[in-house]
Amino acid sequence: MRVLFVCLGNICRSPTAEGVFRQRLQKVGLDAHVLVDSAGTGDWHVGKAPDRRTTLAAQQRNYDLSTLRARQFAVEDFSRFDLILAMDHSNLRNLQALRPDTATAELDLFLRRYQLELDEVPDPYYGGADGFEQVLDLIEQASDALLAEVRGRL
Ligand code: 4NP
Predict the structure, then answer these.
(1) For the range 56-63, what are the long-range contacts, defined as Cβ-Cβ under 8 Å and sequence gap of 24 or more?
(2) Structural domains in the chain?
(3) Cα(29)–Cα(19) distance, rounded to whole angstroms?
(4) Could you confirm whether 112 is annotated as catalytic?
(5) Known active-site residue 51
(6) Closest ligand 1 atom to Cα of 15
(7) Residue 44: CB within 6 Å of ligand 1?
(8) Ligand 1 test: best mutation among 44, 123, 134, most atoms within 8 Å of CB?
(9) Which atom of ligand 1 is nearest to the CA of 13?
(10) For residue 120, what pLDDT is reported?
(11) Is 99 a catalytic residue?
(12) Which of 6, 12, 93 for mutating ligand 1's site (highest number of atoms within 8 Å of CB)?
């Protein structure tokens, strides 16, 4: 199974989701069975490591995002992945506009899929430190639900 997380810049929310979900998979020995990646709909940060605030907040919870590098979402991702999970409604709209008729991937909002109290992971980029903690809180909850789904599907 192949899962892709998508946000706007691929330096805050989707790399966090990639790191958290990969760690969840490693803990239960499923990392060899599930391909995990992340991408941004925008191209401003391509090639860059995650935002420093994201890396530090993640590190405090023992997630290592240091080797990740931003890339832009490509139309081919619709056939490279089985499940594409967008962080907010704007990301989802951007992806829907790019989606070819031949797309095989399922496209959804990450939090809404698991009926958490929020539909979206709010963009923390222009806010304070609290925003980065909230990103981690929401992504940890949704990753547990995604892990349960993936275990059922494998
Ligand atoms: P992300 O956050 O989509 O969670 O990676 C952002 C990163 C950069 C920008 C916006 C959001 N930006 O405008 O550069």
Answers:
(1) 57/129, 57/132, 57/133, 57/135, 57/136, 58/16, 58/19, 58/20, 58/136, 61/136, 61/140, 62/23, 63/16, 63/19, 63/20, 63/23
(2) 2-153 (3.40.50.2300)
(3) 15
(4) no
(5) no
(6) 5
(7) yes
(8) 123
(9) 4
(10) 98
(11) no
(12) 12
Cα 87 to Cα 121: distance, rounded to the nearest angstrom: 5
DSSP string, 127-148: S-HHHHHHHHHHHHHHHHHHHH
pLDDT in tens, 60-105: 999 999 999 999 999 999 999 999 999 999 999 999 999 999 999 9
Closest atom of ligand 1 to CA, residue 16:
4
Which one of the listed residues 2, 12, 13, 53 is annotated catalytic? 13
Q: What are the tens digits of pLDDT across the range 66-76?
A: 999 999 999 99
